[in-house]
Each structure stands twice: as structure tokens, then as C-alpha cells.
Protein 1
Amino acid sequence: MPIDDAKPLPPVPGEIEPSMSGLAGRAFPAATRSAGPRHRSAILAAAMIVLPAAFALGLAEPVASYRIACRYDDARHRIEGTELLTWKNTGSRPATSLRFHLYLNAFANNRSSYMLENRRRGKDRAVGRGEWGGITVSRLTAASGEDLLPGLRFIAPDDGNAEDRTVAEVALPAPIAPGETARFSVEFVTELPRVIDRSGWAGEFALVAQWFPKIGVFSAGGWNCHQYHADSEFFADFGDYDVTIDVPRRLKGRLGGTGLLLEEREAPGDRVLEHFRAESVHDFAWTADPSFLVSTEPFHEAGLPETSITLLCPPEHRGLRARYFAAAKASLSAFGKWYGPYPYAALTIVDPPPNAREAWGMEYPTFIAGGASAFFPAGAWQAPESLEATVAHEIAHQYFYGLLASNEFEEAWLDEGFARYSEVRLMAELKGDAHPVIPVFGFPVELRSVALHPPLDTQFRTFSSISRDPLTASWKFETSESYGLVYGKMALVLASLERTVGRAVMDRVLLAYATEFRFRHPTTADFVGVVERITGRPWRGYFARALFSAGVVDYAVARADSKRAAPPAGRVEVAGRTSEVEPSPETRGGPYETNVVIERRGDVPLPVEIRLQFEGKKTYTTTWDGEARWIRLHVDAGPKLVRADVDPDGRILLDADRNNNGWIVRSDAAAANLWTARSFFWAENLLDLFMELW
Amino acid sequence: MSDFVRGLGISIRRPHFAIAIWLVEGALAAVLAVPLSNFLHAELNHSPAGPAMIAAPNALWWMTARKAHPEFLGNLPEAAASLVSNAGAAGFSSFTSVSGLGAAFLGLGLLGVVLHAFLLGGILGGLQANGKDLTVVAREGARRLPAFLVVTLGAGALAVAIYHSVYYASGQALAGFSANLATEGAARLLVFARAAALIVLLTVVKIAADAIRIALVERPDLPPVTRYLVGIGSALGRLGHVFATLLFWTASTVLLGFLWSRLNVSSAATTTGGVVLLVAAQQVFVFLRAILKVGYYAGVRETILRPARAPFPPPEEPAEALA
């Protein structure tokens, strides 16, 4: 189905109203369509009251826009399509070539960098016959009609793997000058893999992502176009997408994806054309399954724009729909306040079936993949299988990925870390304590008597991430587990920052960052700059140590004691005469001599607060820069010490062992006795069970 | 149920059997008590977390302690959980990273298996000899240990083989099929079927092993191999009754545990005196559980030996051949 590459892109529906800021008008294309002028103004005014800065910068300037027409053969899991790419050189130098992502070639064979990286990490991906995928470019022409395909060659800028075909480069007949816009027509054939990672088919289900030839990002440094790796996501420029998908009639109404479904039109051969449109996004993905239950609910909240939420789920998950919608609405509400309004009119959620677990929990612009078990308890929100936490996490990505399009290859912590922080903060506010789950013969049993108190349990959840691996580019981590640092370490750094500067200041920081860098490609330096500006303090050193250091943070009170100050003894001078004084017994009521030793047991020095609490509710608080390995606090004569704490308010959530952060001078064995008794009892019962098994 | 009740009556009238079990389990667990207590006192006595661990125990403390002291248990909890996971545990390799108290627990478990064989010999021999004190348990247990150990180890080996070949191997064989099931219900049904098959087969092994133990005690007149066959035959002959006795024992033990959890006795142990009372209550629980256990063995013995329907007649000269 070729498209006319000479035909200009149609105007954006409901676009730009002269009386408004054009930028704001585009921010809510569907809201402006569905609402009358008065209502629309009210929405926008309310949104601007909440977040005036959000609209000052406006929507993205389209850099890479696509018009795609394709035909989906669901029996062969094959897509034949044509795309018209309109690309603007926003770099500072001419572009002499183009680079394209051909991501699905990661699943073409076992020689791709994705497959090799997984294999080297001991995670062989089993792919059966007929389950491989790939993408082939069959035609590539410039607007002038010149055939560029002969010049297309595969490159591997990250690892030099000559057999990896996920990035292609094509030389241009003439350079594209900075600021210049060029058009290209591409014909491609995509064969979906059985879902191996994120994208593909499983039975009749399909999640179609990274499925079309997609141009890289051209900046001052040249092309930024990374290969598809085992542990990395994506990076692209904003643009407008107009996508028409020709599908069998049985998929009518059973599709969802990025943007708005504008039209469903009958097509010859018992087929249907599904026409989607999305503005100011940087990717397009869609899903289809003839068995999907499709439900839609609006999200309304004063001060926030209306959003239509569509859920596509398997029939057996009909009982989960209310939970999905509740989680989505809570997320849109909270994040709308924290990070500015969600600017799109639609949000689509797909709940992939259990045989497509590899597609669970993924974000695309205005479209997320959830993933849930009907049996998994709602109270266990700290587990990765939690429906609510997954929805919150992926909707957080609508900001930290969707709107703030950081380079996920090079600085993955900027999307995953912020999303994890947002998810845990929201879930803690919504649900309070979580409970652990033990799977017994596949059935999750919730231990309701055991509490995982947030937010400190954020630390537990990500504890294993506190490894000695430094943060680095996504494909350079030793293992997938160490890649987990991009989630956990950044979330802990953000939570620690929040506890240090206070929730109100943190909210200002996040709002400023999320609004100022909307529709841009922020970096870590951008975020740190915002933190420094809002707080008025230097933070570069903190981030360098807390985030980028390869070490562990651990402070401990090694010892704290307080005893009666010893009276003078030995040869002492009294009234000008030196004489030997006999040691005298301790006098009642005398002052106490106090010694407290604080140790830095980890490698990373961070400024930390130390608090000594004395009898009579007297406290002494000081800050230690943590540079030395230990520090002794000594009081010659004073009240008796009650307890000593390092980081008493738990601000440094990166602390690997918070159990050793305090010391109560007066020993109390009650807890140890209780748990000894309990443990003894459990041991008796477990041994009985063990013995009886034979 | 009547056989179980009858066995329970015997167990209550002869509490020395339950006392023997209680003493053995207490002695085994006591090996862990000192290092465990030392660890807890070192971690909690001066810790601000200490008071919180009484009022509102936080799992974070425990998880942090495990991360900070990986040598304390090793991966025992994870290895144990893997046994009942969806896929199942591959074998002993899951337990190779167990260390510290975790390893000690496994060692005590193995010692417990031997002592369990000893106790069963003592209980079943004591029931036959009609002894009324602990010395009978000790004497009969020692006399029958070799034969009972063979049964215990044989049943254990069979149980491991069943677990591996039925639960674990089926999980491996069906992994691809299971991953392609389009509905969660079907996938769960598959796991349930595997687990049910495992439990049924383990129950059969348990019933057969107990019947063999009874035959070993009650039919010393028969050649050794015949005793095994007679034991299995007797279990098959009264399978429904034996199974019912096993079921009532299991149910009553679960009910006892449920009552314990509902009473939440631990919550009162906030002082040293409270801890003493807690320990006393715990030991009462362990003793009652032992009473139920003896009730089961006495009940099964009653079931199998009941004259009217006994699959084999009692020996003419009981026990003398072994004396």
C-alpha cells in the first residue's frame, strides 16, 4: 500500500486556536475536540493555574514525523508497510548520511548483539522454529526520487558486531543542512518474532513495537543511533505519527496503540483500516488480539485535563479492570500534580496474556503494557508482579521517557530511576504497608502478618542493586541484575534527596525539571542543574558520589558508652602544690563521660547527621562530612547518654545497613529474647515437619 | 475417624510417647538456640530497631540482617521456597549455598530423620509391649533402629525420586507447553495437577511406609521381605481407613496451628516474664502436636491390627522372637 510521498501531512485535528497559545492548543487535541470552547478554555485555564510553566515551553518541534500505511497478516505475523519520513536536521552541522534503527533484527538470529549479550550473561533465549523475526527495507528513496537503497549498509557503532543488523546507515546524495527538512519514502517488511522481549506475537495476541525503520537522533555530536541490546531501551526525536493499519475484520475494535484511533474504515477483502494519529511523541506501538475485552473510562479531575483511558485485556482478566482503571487514574492524578498535566488526550493500557509475559511492563508513548495475574494479591505492591505498581511505573514513564525523552541507552537512570521513585512514592501514599508473597505450587500466598513498611522498604526492594558496579551505558553492565542499578540506585538517590531537602522543595525540583524539559532530551546534568537552582546549594558532588560512585554507603554507630567521669587521681596539682591523690570511689550524681564512635564502613563518603540524645531530653546534633573512616565524639562531663544515631532521620536511603545506624546505651534484651523464643519454636516445628516427610 | 480417636485415646493415656517426641525435637532445636540467641542479642540489644521489633516487627530488619550477614543462613529460605515453586527444585544443588545456621539446620534435620526412625521404633514397639515409661521407648527404639532406618531411608529416597520425576521433571517437560498457554487459569491448573499428583504419591509412600513399620513390629515371625509385602498388603487392604486416619491427623494438626496463630500468644511476650510464659505455651503446643502424632501412629496400628478385618492374624508368640 504505497503512499503518495508528495502529499503533505494533513493538519493536526483540532489544532491551534488563534486566541490561545498555539502550544497549549496542541497539547490537548482530543480534549479540544470533545469539549466546547468554554469547557476547553476552562480546562486549559485550570491547567495553567496548576502549572503555568508547562505551557511556556510548549510542545515539541517535530523533528522526525512518520506517515505509515501497513498491512498486517495475522496468520503469518507479517507486516508490509510504507513510511513517509519527514526529518529535520536540528544539529549544528550538515548530515551527510542517515542512520536507521531496525530493532526487530535483534530477533532475526542468534548472532545479533541482543542474543549474544543475553547468552554471555547466561540468559539464553529459547527461540523455536518459525519464531524468529526481523525487518527488511525493500525500498528507500529520497524526495527527489533517487534510490538510496543500494547505499544501505549495516553498522554496529556500539560493539562492532558485524552480524548485528539493528542499525543501518545510508549515504545521502547531498548533505542536509542544519535546519533543513527532508523527506524519504521507505518500504519495509516486518516479521514479528514470537514475543522474546517486548515485541512480537503469542497465539493470536500481538504487541507490535519497534516495528518500522526509525531514524536515529542527529545532534551536535553526529548520529546517536545505538544497537538493540539485552538491557537497554530507546532514544528518538519527537514528531507526529499518522499510522493506518490494514487488519482482518476480526481485529476490528480489538486494537489499541499510541495516540488516538481516529477512524475505523471497511476495506476490501474482509478487512478494516485502523487510522491512528499521535502528535509530539517519539514512537508508535500497537497491539491487537481478537479476544481482547476493550473498555474505556474517562479520567476527570479539577485542574487536570481530561484523558480517555482505554484498557485491552484478556477475557479472564475482566475482574481486574476496575483495578487497572483505579491505578491509572490515581497515577494520572498524582503525576499530573507532581510533574504537570499529562498532555495527551488518550492513554491506552494493554494487559498481555500470560503466554506473552515478556511483553509485560513496558512503556510506549501514550500506550503502556501492564501485566498481571488474577491471583496475585493487591496488597503485595512491592513485588514486581503487582498490577498497581506496574501501571504506576509505566504511567510515570509517560513523563520520564515520554515527555522527558532522555537517552535511555546512555542514561537509563533518568527514566527508570525516576519511574521507580514515582511508583514507590505513589504506592506508599495509596496503600501504605506492603506484604511479602510466597509462591506455593504457583499460587501466591500473601503473608499479611509481615509488614514491609514504605518508604524504607524502597531500600529493601532495591537493596540488591547496591552493588559495586558503576552506573554506565545500558549495554555495558556486567549482568542484568547490575543493570537494575538504573532503577534502584537512582530511586534511592531521589528519595534521599527528598528527605534531605524536604518534600515541598523536592516537589518544586521535580515540577521544574519535568516542565522545563518537556519535549526535550534532558541529561543528568540538566537535572542536577535544576536541583541546584531550586535549592540554592551545590549538589554536583553529592550526585557524583551517591549516584556515580561504584562504592557502598554504610554508616554505623560502632560504640556508645556513658560512664561516671573519673575524679582526679595520681600526682595532681592542688592549690599550687603537687601531691598524690588517692583514687576515690565514684560519687553519686557526678557528671558522665561519654564516648561515641561513628564509622564509615562503606566506601562512599557523604555528609551525614549525628545525633546524641542525653538524659533530660538534651540533644546534640552535628554533621560529619564522612571523609574519615571513623569519628569519635567525646564529652568529658555531662549528662548520661541515652542513645546515639547516625543519620537519625533516615535521609540516606542508600545506606546499605540501617540496622547499625543507632545505639541505645542501656541494653534491652526483650526483642532478642522474644525472637529467640519464636525462632526456637519455629525450629522445633520445622524439624518435626522435616522428620515426618521421610 | 474412630481409629484416629481411638489412637488419640491411647496417646493421651500413655503420654510418655509424646514426651519422647517433644524431648527429641526440643533437643534438636536447642542446638540452634545458642548461636541464634547470640546473634539476635548482638544485633538487637543496643539497636533502636529493638523496641520496634516487639511492637511492630518489620521485615526490613530481617532482610537487611540477611544481606549484612549472608553467612548467617546462606540461601536456606530461598532453597526451601524453590521446592514449592512453580518449576520445583532441581535437586540438592539448590542447597549448596546454604551456610551457617542454615547448614546446621539441615544437618539437624538429617539427624532428626535418624532419630525419627528411632522414635517410631520406640512408639510402635512400646505400644506392642504395652510399656508405660520412657525406657520402653528407648529400648524398643534402639532394638528396631536398623530395620526402621532402612524403611525411613527407603521412603525418603522414594519421596525424593517422586518429587524429582513427577513434580520437577514434569515441570521441565511441560515448560514450553505451559509458557504457550494463553490463559492463566490453564497454566495454574497444570501446576495444580502436578502438585496434586505429587501429594497423592507422597501420601501413598507415607501410608505404605507406616504400614511396613507396623508389620515389622507386629510380625517378627515372618521373613524380612515378607514383612514388607504384608505391610504394603495391609495398607492396601484398609487403604480408606488408613487414609482417613492420616487425614484426621493432618487436619487436627493444622487446626492446632490455626488456633495458635489466632491466639497470637507471642504478642504478650513484651517482658522477660512474658517470654517465659511464651516459651511455656510454645512447649505445650509442641507437646499437644506430639500427642496428635502419636495418636495417628496408634490409630493406624489399631486400623491395621483390628482382628475382625485384619489382613493378617496376630502372631502366636508376639515379640518373643525379637527378645
Protein 2
Amino acid sequence: MSEVPLLVVDHLAKRYRERPAVRGVGFTLWPGEVLALVGESGSGKTTLLNMIAGRVAPNAGSVRFRVESGDIVDLVALSEAERRMLVRREIGFVHQNPRDGLRLSVSAGANIGEPLMAAGARHYGSIRHTAALWLERVEMDPRRLDDLPTSFSGGMQQRLQIARALVTEPRLVLMDEPTGGLDVSVQAKLLDLLRRLVGDLGISVVLVTHDLGVARLLAHRLLVMQQGEVVESGVTDQVLDDPQHPYTQLLVSSVLAA
Amino acid sequence: MYVAVKGGEAAIDAGHALLAERRRGDAAVPELSLAQIREQLSLAVDRVMAEGALYDPDLAALAVKQARGDLIEAIFLLRAYRTTLPRLAESEPIDTGRMRVERRISATFKDLPGGQILGPTFDYTHRLLDFALAAERPEPPAARAQAPAAPAEPMPRVAAILGGEGLIEQENAAAAAAPGDLTRAPLAYPASRDLRLQALARGDEGFLLAMGYSTQRGYGHSHPFAAEIRQGRVTVEIVPPELGFAVEIGEIAITECQMVNQFKGSDAAPPQFTSGYGLSFGGAERKAMAMALVDRALRAAELAEEPQAPAQDQEFVLSHADSVEASGFVQHLKLPHYVDFQSELDLLRRLRREWSARREAAE
Amino acid sequence: MTVATAGYNFAYLDEQTKRMIRRAILKAVAVPGYQVPFAGREMPLPYGWGTGGIQVTASIIGSEDRLKVIDQGADDTTNAVSIRRFFAKTAGVATTTRTSEATIIQTRHRIPETPLAAGQIMVFQVPIPEPLRWLEPRETETRRMHAQADYGSMYVKLYEDIARMGRIAAAYDYPVMVAGRYLMRPSPIPRFDNPKLDRSPALLLFGAGREKRIYALPPHTPVKSLDFEDHPFAIERWTERCQRCGSGESFLDEIVVDDRGTRRFVCSDTDHCDARLANGSAP
């Protein structure tokens, strides 16, 4: 791991009317690291992710990201236009519902090819070839390149979304419950895939999940959130095997009981 | 030997002549006068003025006659004429509180200062064709209904009555910047309320009626009440710079509708009724009401409501509300498109050849 | 009828309006391919019938100009006649059917076969100025896409055409990239005419009256029709030649002659066809 962090979040906060959704959260993310934000619904983890992605405007704090050129940029301080451009080019996003991250009316190949074309790729054959390679990489049949996403199962749509998010090999990918809503067996296979891809590509990931099993499988470190605050953080196995905070203990024990 | 198609000029001239004939109709039938249209088809004239965005009953009557009764065509005529008119001044805002009221109703109060005045309305007529109207008889000059005098007792606007108790959001007239002019600067989204209201005022009644109706059926429901509908005449005033005080330049007939809608509150203010506003020239009451419903729907974003319904979608409503634009573009499909069609034919034939070739190759 | 007796200002629009439109034109020329909003006026011709082109022409035309108006390439189609009459009535300018003799050419759906020269101005009538409109109906979104050169979705559409049909399925109004920066619609000209846009020595102005946008291609601007390296842009071709003048290079109109489906092909550009005949060409 290099010396310079990829992402530094500092005192990030969000309030809706009187209710604080996220209270002054901070963390550092290093290249090649997977960080999980875990907690129940309402803990603020999704709001935190959306602030990093530039989808929700924070009330306070900074999100300093090391861009391709090596400069450090505070995404919060940018204009909306600059932020959108930067995020589109350098940060991937995997939605919980694959339909939110795909164009449903165009083929799988077009979906995977779009980020390449947006970045300037202009050779149809090469784009198609790369898209087919990525279908294989996410363990789908490359002969389905021209099929519409609506003809795929939920699990396959999610694989397609992942391929689309990773095809330009962004250094940071944000994932919002990437396996939520899928069958248990489908989830397991998908998690395996994610683990391999993330490892192979060396990308950094911030991952939101309510499922501790997902965190354990994918994340190097995790932050446990409750009511907008980080109550515990650390190396995944350590936190899950030996939780210190009562809330973390509750989370861990409820998983065991189930 | 193929001869190139010619004669466009001659065809147009012949077309114009035929149109003039059709417009006149059977020469044995007396020709319509502008006065007849203005007096006896006044609601048609009102609609043409409202959507033509020009108050001149005689010109509107002429447009209706020239357009053979096609009101959208008449509206187009009036708009095109409006383009040529120089701007002499901007009027002061009309004061509908000082209206010489001919009709005034409120659905929110049983009775109120100034009373409920029914006025000339279709509302309680039975829609039975009146065959007595089919016969034209010279009518004895009947006692004309009195022109409405200035109200004997004060007739405050319902908005002011509710406002007195702080129950309704205040129109922040003092703080507002000078209103924009929809016809002088291109509309950009998101548009401010003043420009939206201008667009709605000149918008097609049918379209706005459907949009307003959709809000009542659940597409962006706002629980509306008709707080007040007023029809009557208001004076128009300007302040010439040389004089520095207001002078009256005339009087216009208008219809105003104030809708009161579900209440909202926030951290800063207690819950209040929100409102929608409609205004039209003449007696176009249905238009004013529809406009008020759509105005309220379009305020969704400013009232922290998630815009989900078509009537709440600014771009959708305002882009398609103008009948002159809509009519032009829909009807432009009649223009020759054969060059583009030729292009399509070429492409289609090519695709079909390639498809057949692929099939043969596969076999 | 002279302009004075018609009771209208020269070329119908008042001078303030013309100034406003010329300012929009200057902005458009300064940023090739970028759609400049302008406060379009209602004209005596309906929206969809060329009000944008008419407003642009009305703002630039002077008494010394010589105006040609074509629709589908022909001077004599009813709408071209109507517009030419409009300017004859409100501006009293000289009109012509010869492309080479015109200073201003207002056109719907074609670029003449005769190459344009420096000093000439071509005014295009545009129904829908926004190239991304079919992919994204919202104006707020397409404005952002242009500002950020976010044109991925346009290429997705072309990719999908090739995947579905083996070729890009745009026949007319074929999207172009202007000076490598702005995506533009050239108006519903057949793709046959797109190459004439590239580095034209003339000034090309585009007016959309109903949508209230003006855009421009100043002389010698590079204009590239979108394609893929391995699926290059290609124009229409005919096996037939023009039945009047014999041209094998011009855009041909297909005319059905009898009820057995017999077809004749004739140049769409009537001036070009007439000129070739006058020069002794034969079918």
C-alpha cells in the first residue's frame, strides 16, 4: 500500500430538519482497501455513502479524494458541475437495485460499453470485445451481449451492473447493499465474484451493508454506525470476533442467534 | 418525357381563393358582423384574447371570423398581430380588490362580506338544447341588466380574509423582483413563478384543463378548495414618467380564481394554507380554475413536495401548454418530407438486403 | 407592393428584435455548434413551418441581398414559395432560384449540390435543435450534458443500432461533432448532405423558432458525422441517374409514376438540374 490515502472523509455531517442523519463522521481509505459501513437501517450509512458520491449535499465536513493526476480535491467544495464530472469519470457506483444502475432499454453490451464510449472509445469491434470479456469476467455468457437487461435474472442484472461500474477500472467504487434483495445462494456467488474482482483490480471500495456476513467476506476494515455516529471501527475480523461497543455486540449476537 | 412538378405559386393562390369562398359560406346567408361575434359569441372572443395574450375584443372577433370559428387558428392570428405592436408602457398591477364585480362566489365560506353573487353563469342551467334560440326573431329591447356598480359594502378578497388570520401564505410582493417577460427572454428551466403564470395564462385551455383534472384524480393531489372566483371589470393604470402619478388608461374584463390548497408548515413558520392562482381575460372561468390548479401543482418543488405527477413537471407542462406551438408542430407534418423519406427508404432497402444476405449465408 | 404600403418594418421584425436575434447569432458564431436560446417571436407563419429560419433571415437580410428559398431542394414547393413571397412582401428584396447568384439561401431539408462560396449565408430551418432529445426529454439534463461534453449516451445509441441492425440507423438529421466539442443536429438534411457542412467556406446559420434556439457553423469549421472507426459514416447512393439531366452525383427524388409501381428518379435540387441541362448535359 502506498503512503498517500485515496480518500479522506472528515467531520461529514447531514441534518434533515431537526433530525441529524450523520453526525460528524470521518475516516481514511487507502488504495486497495475495502471498507464496510455497517449498521441497521436508519444508522446513516447510506446517507454517508451518498454524500461521498456527491448525490446528497452535506451540511458540514469534507471529502478529500486523490484524483487521477495525483492532486487532492475536496469534492464537497467543488461546484455541482465539477463534482458530477469528476465522480462520473473516476468513481464507480453499484446500486442496490441493478435497475437503477443500468439502461434497461439497451443491450448488455451497450451498457458495459457506455463508460468506455463516454471516455472516448470509438472502435465498435474493440468496445464489443471488451464488453464480452467483462461479461465473462462476471461469469455471464458472452453470447448474451446483445440481450436486454430485462431478459436477465436479478442476480445477472447485478453482475451486469458490476461490469458496467468496473469496466473503466476506477480506483474507487462505492457500493450500496450490492447483494441486497437477492437469494442467499445467488448472494454467496456474487460476493465471491466481488472479492475476486476487487482483489484482482486492486480497487478501493466503500461498501454499505446491514449484513455482517457480507462485511466479513469483503471488507478489510469496518465502521459500525448507529444513529448517525461511528460507534466502533477497526479490522473486520477483530471487530466481529471481539466487539467492544454494546451496539456492536448486539449486532453480532443477533446474527449468531439467527 | 418526365416534366418537373411546377405550379406551387398557382396552387397557393387557388387555395387562398377557395378558402375565402368557404369562409363566406352560402352567399344567401347574411354575413357575420364583428359586432355579432363580439356580442353573441363573447366567450369565444374571451378565449381568443386570453390565449392570444392581447386584450381587444374587436380584433379578437375579427380573428374568430377570419379563422372560420377555429379558435386555435384565431389565437394564432392574434399572437402574430401582437408581435407587431410596439410596447408603450407597463401597467401597474391591477387591483382585483377594487373590481366592479359582476360575479363573485366562494366555496369555502357560506357567506362573507360582499356576499355570494351568482352573476351570468351556466352553472345552474339545465343543459337542454333551447330550440327557441333556433328561431331568429327581432327581440323587443329588453331591460338590460344593470351594469355592475362599485360594491356598496366592502368586498375583500378571500385571500385577504384568510391572510388576516395568518392562515394562508403571504404573497411576498414587496420583496419580489420585477416580473420577467415571457415574450422577451427565452424560457429556461427551472422557471420562476411569474414566468410560469404568464405561460399558463396564454396556455391552451384544453391542455390545462386536463392537467388540472389529473391533479384532482390523484396525479399530484393538493386538496384544492375554490376560495374565490371573481368576474368583473378592473381599471388599468400606468405611471407616465413625466407625470409621476398613476393615470387610468382603460378598463378590462377579467376572471380571477384563487384556489386554497393543503397546508404546509416548516421549522420557520406554522402550518398555513398554500394557494394556486388563475387569471384570464373576459369570462373564461374554466380556464382560470384550471390554471389555478396547475399553478399549485407546479409549485411542488418550492413547497418541498416530490414532483411525481405530470402536472408537477414544469418542463412537461410549460413546453406543451402553448397551442400555437403545438398546433404548428403537429400540423407541420403536412409539409413535404419526401427527401428525408427517401433517405429512410434507402436505409431500409439496404437493411433488408443485408438481412436477406445474412439469412442466405446462414442456410 | 412596396414595404411602405404594406405597413410593416423592413423584413417584418422591428429593429429591436432584429438586434436581439443578431446578438444571439454572434454568440452562436463565437461558439460553433452551441445552441443559443433566443426570445423568438410569433410570426405570421406557423411554428414548424420555418419561423426560426425566417427570423434569422429577417435579422440579417438587407436591401442589397439576393434571396433564394428552397424546400426539399426545390424553389417551387409550396412552402418555399410562401416564404419567398413573405420576404418579397415585407422586404422587397431581389429573389433568385440560382444558388450561385444568391447571397442568402434559406433552406428546409437540403443543402444545394452547387458548392457554396465565401460570402454566402445559408439559413437552415430546424424543427428539433437538440441532438440528445430522443435520448433525454429534459432540457435541464441535456443542457448539463452539453456543458460537460457528456455524450456517452449518443454513442450508446449508435452502438445499439449496429448491434441490432448491422449499421447506424440514422438516415437524416444525422448527428455531428462540431470542432471536436459540441454535438449538433444539422437539421433534417439527408446524411448525403452532411459532408457539405465540413469546412464550408460559407456561413451556416440554424434557426429553431418553436424551440427558440439559434446555432451556427462559421466558415471553415470542422464538422464530423458521428461514427465508429470500424463502421465509418457513409452516404446514400443510387444505381439510377437523374432522368432529366443524367447526373449520377446528386440526391435523387423517387417519383412513382403509375399504379404498377414504375419509378423515375430526378434531381432533388431543381436549380442544379436546370443548370446541367442548360450546359448540355443529357440523361
